[in-house]
Amino acid sequence: MSQITELKFMREFIGVCAEGYRLGWHERNGGNLSYRMSDEDVASAKEFLQDGAPWQDIGTEVPGLKNEYFLVTGSGKHMRNVPLCPEENICIVKVDETGTKFQIQWGLVAGGRPTSELPTHLMNHEIKKQLTGGAYRVIYHAHPGNLIALTFVLPLEDKAFTHELWEMATENPVVFPQGIGIVPWMVPGGRDIAIATSKLMHKYDVAVWAHHGLFCAGPTFDDTFGLMNTVEKAAEICVKVKSMGGKCQTIPEKGFVQLAKDFNIELNS
Ligand code: 2HA
Ligand code: ZN
Question: What's the predicted TM-score (pTM) here?
Fold first, then answer.
Protein backbone atom coordinates (compact mmCIF):
# COMPACT_ATOMS: atom_id res chain seq x y z
CA MET A 1 0.00 0.00 0.00
CA SER A 2 1.66 3.23 -1.06
CA GLN A 3 -0.78 5.60 0.64
CA ILE A 4 -2.82 5.25 3.83
CA THR A 5 -5.74 7.00 2.11
CA GLU A 6 -6.10 4.01 -0.25
CA LEU A 7 -7.22 1.78 2.66
CA LYS A 8 -10.93 0.93 2.53
CA PHE A 9 -11.89 2.36 5.94
CA MET A 10 -10.10 5.60 5.00
CA ARG A 11 -11.90 5.85 1.66
CA GLU A 12 -15.27 5.22 3.31
CA PHE A 13 -14.58 7.78 6.07
CA ILE A 14 -13.54 10.42 3.55
CA GLY A 15 -16.61 9.56 1.46
CA VAL A 16 -18.94 10.31 4.38
CA CYS A 17 -17.26 13.69 4.98
CA ALA A 18 -17.59 14.60 1.29
CA GLU A 19 -21.20 13.47 0.96
CA GLY A 20 -22.31 15.10 4.23
CA TYR A 21 -20.77 18.36 3.03
CA ARG A 22 -22.46 18.03 -0.38
CA LEU A 23 -25.82 17.62 1.36
CA GLY A 24 -25.33 20.86 3.29
CA TRP A 25 -24.87 19.33 6.75
CA HIS A 26 -21.37 20.75 7.39
CA GLU A 27 -21.25 24.52 7.06
CA ARG A 28 -17.78 25.90 7.83
CA ASN A 29 -16.29 23.55 10.50
CA GLY A 30 -19.64 22.08 11.53
CA GLY A 31 -19.94 18.40 12.36
CA ASN A 32 -17.47 15.61 13.11
CA LEU A 33 -16.95 11.90 12.45
CA SER A 34 -15.15 9.08 14.26
CA TYR A 35 -14.46 5.43 13.47
CA ARG A 36 -13.21 2.75 15.89
CA MET A 37 -10.65 0.81 13.85
CA SER A 38 -10.65 -2.99 13.78
CA ASP A 39 -7.47 -4.99 14.47
CA GLU A 40 -7.21 -5.58 10.71
CA ASP A 41 -7.50 -1.83 10.03
CA VAL A 42 -4.75 -1.12 12.56
CA ALA A 43 -2.50 -3.81 11.04
CA SER A 44 -3.08 -2.46 7.52
CA ALA A 45 -2.27 1.12 8.64
CA LYS A 46 0.64 0.18 10.94
CA GLU A 47 3.42 1.24 8.55
CA PHE A 48 1.98 4.80 8.54
CA LEU A 49 1.47 5.15 12.32
CA GLN A 50 4.00 6.85 14.59
CA ASP A 51 4.33 6.44 18.32
CA GLY A 52 5.94 9.43 20.08
CA ALA A 53 3.60 12.43 20.01
CA PRO A 54 2.57 13.74 23.46
CA TRP A 55 -0.28 12.05 25.33
CA GLN A 56 -3.14 14.52 25.83
CA ASP A 57 -6.20 14.49 28.09
CA ILE A 58 -9.44 13.26 26.51
CA GLY A 59 -11.47 15.28 29.03
CA THR A 60 -13.38 12.24 30.27
CA GLU A 61 -12.73 8.57 31.12
CA VAL A 62 -13.35 5.75 28.65
CA PRO A 63 -11.68 2.69 30.20
CA GLY A 64 -13.72 0.44 27.88
CA LEU A 65 -11.72 1.86 24.96
CA LYS A 66 -8.20 1.39 26.32
CA ASN A 67 -5.60 0.84 23.59
CA GLU A 68 -8.19 1.32 20.82
CA TYR A 69 -7.41 3.31 17.65
CA PHE A 70 -9.82 5.86 16.15
CA LEU A 71 -9.90 7.75 12.89
CA VAL A 72 -11.42 11.18 13.67
CA THR A 73 -11.94 14.59 12.07
CA GLY A 74 -9.88 17.51 13.36
CA SER A 75 -11.16 20.33 15.56
CA GLY A 76 -11.92 23.46 13.53
CA LYS A 77 -11.31 21.60 10.26
CA HIS A 78 -13.82 21.82 7.44
CA MET A 79 -15.50 18.64 6.12
CA ARG A 80 -15.26 20.21 2.66
CA ASN A 81 -11.47 19.95 2.86
CA VAL A 82 -11.25 16.33 4.04
CA PRO A 83 -11.22 14.79 0.53
CA LEU A 84 -8.92 17.57 -0.74
CA CYS A 85 -6.24 17.01 1.91
CA PRO A 86 -7.01 14.17 4.36
CA GLU A 87 -3.64 14.30 6.15
CA GLU A 88 -4.23 17.93 7.25
CA ASN A 89 -7.86 17.52 8.32
CA ILE A 90 -8.25 14.11 9.97
CA CYS A 91 -6.13 11.99 12.29
CA ILE A 92 -5.68 8.56 13.84
CA VAL A 93 -5.49 8.62 17.64
CA LYS A 94 -4.69 5.85 20.09
CA VAL A 95 -6.35 5.76 23.54
CA ASP A 96 -3.94 4.96 26.37
CA GLU A 97 -3.98 2.11 28.89
CA THR A 98 -6.12 4.12 31.38
CA GLY A 99 -8.75 5.43 28.94
CA THR A 100 -8.06 9.05 29.92
CA LYS A 101 -5.48 10.15 27.30
CA PHE A 102 -4.98 10.00 23.56
CA GLN A 103 -1.97 10.25 21.25
CA ILE A 104 -2.06 11.38 17.60
CA GLN A 105 -0.32 8.69 15.53
CA TRP A 106 -1.12 9.92 12.01
CA GLY A 107 -2.54 13.03 10.34
CA LEU A 108 -3.18 16.70 11.26
CA VAL A 109 0.24 17.30 9.68
CA ALA A 110 -0.22 21.09 9.73
CA GLY A 111 -1.13 20.97 13.44
CA GLY A 112 -4.36 20.73 15.39
CA ARG A 113 -6.36 18.53 17.71
CA PRO A 114 -9.04 15.90 17.22
CA THR A 115 -12.66 17.14 17.14
CA SER A 116 -13.89 19.35 19.97
CA GLU A 117 -16.59 16.72 20.50
CA LEU A 118 -14.05 13.95 21.24
CA PRO A 119 -15.51 13.35 24.74
CA THR A 120 -18.99 12.73 23.28
CA HIS A 121 -17.65 10.57 20.44
CA LEU A 122 -15.57 8.39 22.74
CA MET A 123 -18.23 8.05 25.44
CA ASN A 124 -20.75 7.02 22.76
CA HIS A 125 -18.25 4.53 21.32
CA GLU A 126 -17.65 3.06 24.75
CA ILE A 127 -21.38 2.48 25.35
CA LYS A 128 -22.05 1.14 21.88
CA LYS A 129 -19.01 -1.16 21.87
CA GLN A 130 -20.22 -2.68 25.13
CA LEU A 131 -23.90 -2.94 24.13
CA THR A 132 -23.26 -4.44 20.68
CA GLY A 133 -20.36 -6.74 21.53
CA GLY A 134 -18.03 -4.58 19.45
CA ALA A 135 -20.23 -4.43 16.33
CA TYR A 136 -20.77 -0.63 16.35
CA ARG A 137 -17.80 1.37 15.08
CA VAL A 138 -19.06 4.72 13.72
CA ILE A 139 -20.27 7.89 15.46
CA TYR A 140 -21.35 10.79 13.23
CA HIS A 141 -22.34 14.34 14.18
CA ALA A 142 -23.89 16.69 11.61
CA HIS A 143 -25.90 19.92 11.40
CA PRO A 144 -28.79 19.03 9.05
CA GLY A 145 -31.02 22.07 8.56
CA ASN A 146 -34.51 20.57 8.63
CA LEU A 147 -33.84 18.55 11.76
CA ILE A 148 -32.45 21.61 13.54
CA ALA A 149 -35.48 23.66 12.43
CA LEU A 150 -37.84 21.08 13.96
CA THR A 151 -36.16 21.44 17.36
CA PHE A 152 -37.71 24.93 17.48
CA VAL A 153 -41.19 23.59 16.81
CA LEU A 154 -41.70 20.00 18.01
CA PRO A 155 -41.84 19.17 21.73
CA LEU A 156 -38.32 18.36 22.97
CA GLU A 157 -39.46 14.99 24.24
CA ASP A 158 -38.20 11.61 22.96
CA LYS A 159 -41.56 9.98 22.36
CA ALA A 160 -43.29 12.88 20.62
CA PHE A 161 -40.28 13.65 18.41
CA THR A 162 -39.85 9.98 17.46
CA HIS A 163 -43.53 9.52 16.57
CA GLU A 164 -43.60 12.63 14.41
CA LEU A 165 -40.58 11.46 12.40
CA TRP A 166 -41.74 7.81 12.17
CA GLU A 167 -44.96 9.10 10.66
CA MET A 168 -43.18 11.00 7.88
CA ALA A 169 -42.38 7.91 5.76
CA THR A 170 -43.68 4.36 6.06
CA GLU A 171 -40.26 2.69 6.36
CA ASN A 172 -38.83 5.09 8.96
CA PRO A 173 -39.84 2.93 11.95
CA VAL A 174 -37.94 0.05 10.32
CA VAL A 175 -34.78 2.20 10.03
CA PHE A 176 -34.88 3.56 13.61
CA PRO A 177 -37.20 1.25 15.59
CA GLN A 178 -35.71 2.27 18.97
CA GLY A 179 -36.59 5.88 18.20
CA ILE A 180 -34.78 9.15 18.88
CA GLY A 181 -33.50 10.68 22.11
CA ILE A 182 -33.38 14.41 22.78
CA VAL A 183 -30.65 16.32 24.58
CA PRO A 184 -32.06 19.73 25.60
CA TRP A 185 -29.99 22.77 24.66
CA MET A 186 -26.54 22.55 26.27
CA VAL A 187 -23.11 24.05 25.71
CA PRO A 188 -21.30 21.74 23.22
CA GLY A 189 -17.74 20.46 23.39
CA GLY A 190 -17.48 19.20 26.95
CA ARG A 191 -18.05 16.38 29.36
CA ASP A 192 -21.58 17.35 30.48
CA ILE A 193 -23.10 17.12 27.00
CA ALA A 194 -21.05 13.93 26.45
CA ILE A 195 -22.64 12.36 29.54
CA ALA A 196 -26.16 13.45 28.53
CA THR A 197 -25.67 12.04 25.01
CA SER A 198 -24.10 8.76 26.07
CA LYS A 199 -27.01 8.17 28.48
CA LEU A 200 -29.36 8.35 25.47
CA MET A 201 -27.06 6.05 23.48
CA HIS A 202 -27.92 3.28 25.96
CA LYS A 203 -31.40 3.30 24.39
CA TYR A 204 -31.11 4.88 20.94
CA ASP A 205 -28.86 5.08 17.87
CA VAL A 206 -29.96 8.68 17.25
CA ALA A 207 -29.59 11.62 19.63
CA VAL A 208 -30.79 15.12 18.80
CA TRP A 209 -28.94 18.09 20.22
CA ALA A 210 -31.67 20.74 20.43
CA HIS A 211 -30.99 23.81 18.25
CA HIS A 212 -27.65 22.29 17.19
CA GLY A 213 -27.70 19.00 15.29
CA LEU A 214 -27.74 15.24 15.44
CA PHE A 215 -25.55 12.32 16.57
CA CYS A 216 -25.93 8.91 14.92
CA ALA A 217 -24.27 5.60 15.80
CA GLY A 218 -23.93 2.45 13.74
CA PRO A 219 -21.87 -0.60 12.78
CA THR A 220 -20.77 0.63 9.34
CA PHE A 221 -20.32 3.92 7.50
CA ASP A 222 -23.29 3.02 5.26
CA ASP A 223 -25.62 2.29 8.17
CA THR A 224 -24.64 5.40 10.11
CA PHE A 225 -24.70 7.78 7.15
CA GLY A 226 -27.96 6.19 5.98
CA LEU A 227 -29.48 6.74 9.42
CA MET A 228 -28.52 10.44 9.41
CA ASN A 229 -29.90 10.73 5.87
CA THR A 230 -33.19 9.01 6.79
CA VAL A 231 -33.79 11.15 9.90
CA GLU A 232 -33.02 14.36 8.00
CA LYS A 233 -35.32 13.30 5.12
CA ALA A 234 -38.08 12.68 7.66
CA ALA A 235 -37.43 16.14 9.11
CA GLU A 236 -37.57 17.66 5.63
CA ILE A 237 -40.96 16.07 4.96
CA CYS A 238 -42.19 17.25 8.36
CA VAL A 239 -41.11 20.82 7.59
CA LYS A 240 -42.90 20.65 4.22
CA VAL A 241 -46.09 19.23 5.77
CA LYS A 242 -46.14 21.90 8.49
CA SER A 243 -45.40 24.60 5.90
CA MET A 244 -48.38 23.40 3.81
CA GLY A 245 -50.68 23.87 6.76
CA GLY A 246 -50.31 20.53 8.53
CA LYS A 247 -51.51 16.96 8.06
CA CYS A 248 -54.87 16.21 6.44
CA GLN A 249 -54.36 12.46 6.85
CA THR A 250 -51.64 10.13 8.11
CA ILE A 251 -50.59 6.53 8.75
CA PRO A 252 -53.17 4.99 11.12
CA GLU A 253 -51.94 4.07 14.59
CA LYS A 254 -52.74 0.39 13.92
CA GLY A 255 -50.57 0.70 10.79
CA PHE A 256 -47.48 0.88 13.01
CA VAL A 257 -48.54 -2.29 14.81
CA GLN A 258 -49.00 -4.07 11.46
CA LEU A 259 -45.64 -2.75 10.19
CA ALA A 260 -43.82 -3.97 13.30
CA LYS A 261 -45.41 -7.40 12.92
CA ASP A 262 -44.67 -7.78 9.20
CA PHE A 263 -41.11 -6.43 9.41
CA ASN A 264 -40.44 -8.35 12.60
CA ILE A 265 -39.25 -5.32 14.57
CA GLU A 266 -39.97 -4.11 18.06
CA LEU A 267 -41.11 -0.50 18.07
CA ASN A 268 -40.09 1.41 21.16
CA SER A 269 -43.31 3.43 21.15
O1 2HA B 1 -17.87 22.62 14.98
O2 2HA B 1 -20.13 20.65 15.16
O3 2HA B 1 -20.44 20.58 17.79
C4 2HA B 1 -17.92 21.29 15.20
C5 2HA B 1 -19.20 20.99 15.83
C6 2HA B 1 -19.27 21.10 17.29
ZN1 ZN C 1 -21.97 20.56 16.10
Answer: 0.98
